[in-house]
Design brief:
The chain is mainly beta and 286 residues long. 10% of the residues lie in helices and 39% in strands. α1 crosses α2.
Length: 286
């Protein structure tokens, strides 16, 4: 036997997405998923973007790590679902969130996480995380006229598996992007689920969020809740981070209806007639 006890068997006549599987898991015990991946204590950088961009992480607030709005057209706006504020970059095609005056140096293993909304049109390249112009590495971006997501090594585009923004590029919803770098590769997670791995890893400087520096390569209109860890989060930890914002069930499961049918069987012996009625429950997916 596989196990002594079995409960809650559900069969769907279609394949669920990774996010739907996570939602199904959470419907039975959401606290398990939240506790299944314990997050490290203290991010290196933490920009909640509620009232300002200052770093609240373990490095403390300082001129070298404070977040700042560059090219001045960006503005703080109020959004009360994820948090009390977010950064809106729509005021300028070159508006960007900067990390201090010179950025930070990436550690051997790292995790970057951020919420984004209203992904920009793909007329130009779209940059979410990148280094300084002199370093030329981009941790997450799409090339011009493309929805394929990858990194830039300084000389070449390397895609995160086969992942494309096509399915979410125009839905105007908040999405959680997480990049995990370790060893010689980087993983990309979107809304708590692993969507692709790139066979390369960013090194050196990390400088901007949401756009290139002084470039017209905005990734999206709205940015919120940025975190940088100096360790590589695992799958469970990324899912827990996603769930910590109250988005555990954002992927809707297929609707199900339950119908009841009754089957009657009669058994006769030479001395006794016994009638047995059994009830069968059938789950039908629509």
């Amino acid at each position: 036997a596989f196990a002594d006890q079995i409960d809650e068997v559900v069969v769907y006549p279609r394949g669920l997405t990774a996010a739907q599987v996570l939602s199904l898991y959470n419907t039975y015990n959401s606290t398990v998923c939240s506790c299944g991946g314990t997050l490290p204590t203290g991010a290196i950088l933490s920009y909640n973007m509620d009232t300002n961009l200052n770093n609240a992480g373990s490095l403390g607030a300082s001129a070298t790590t404070n977040g700042n709005l560059r090219n001045s057209a960006a503005s703080l706006s109020v959004y009360n679902t994820l948090s009390s504020g977010y950064v809106n970059l729509a005021g300028s095609s070159t508006a960007v969130i900067g990390i201090g005056s010179a950025g930070v140096t990436l550690t051997t293993s790292f995790t970057m996480a951020v919420w984004v909304r209203n992904i920009a049109a793909n007329t130009n390249a779209r940059v979410l995380f990148r280094s300084t112009n002199t370093n030329s590495q981009i941790t997450l971006y799409t090339q011009a006229s493309s929805n394929n997501v990858g990194l830039y090594t300084g000389t070449a585009f390397v895609q995160y598996g086969t992942y494309s923004l096509a399915s979410i590029a125009s839905d105007e919803m908040w999405h959680h992007f997480v990049v995990v770098g370790t060893g010689s590769s980087q993983k990309l997670y979107v809304d708590g689920a692993l969507v692709g791995t790139a066979a390369s890893k960013s090194t050196g400087n990390f400088y901007t969020i949401g756009n290139g520096d002084a470039a017209q390569e905005r990734f999206c209109t709205d940015v919120d809740e940025f975190l940088l860890y100096d360790v590589a989060l695992d799958d469970w930890q990324v899912a827990s981070l996603f769930n910590s914002y109250g988005k555990a069930s954002c992927a809707a499961l297929p609707a199900t209806t339950t119908t009841t049918t009754t089957t009657t069987s009669t058994t006769t012996t030479s001395t006794t007639t016994t009638t047995t009625t059994s009830t069968t429950t059938t789950s039908t997916t629509t």
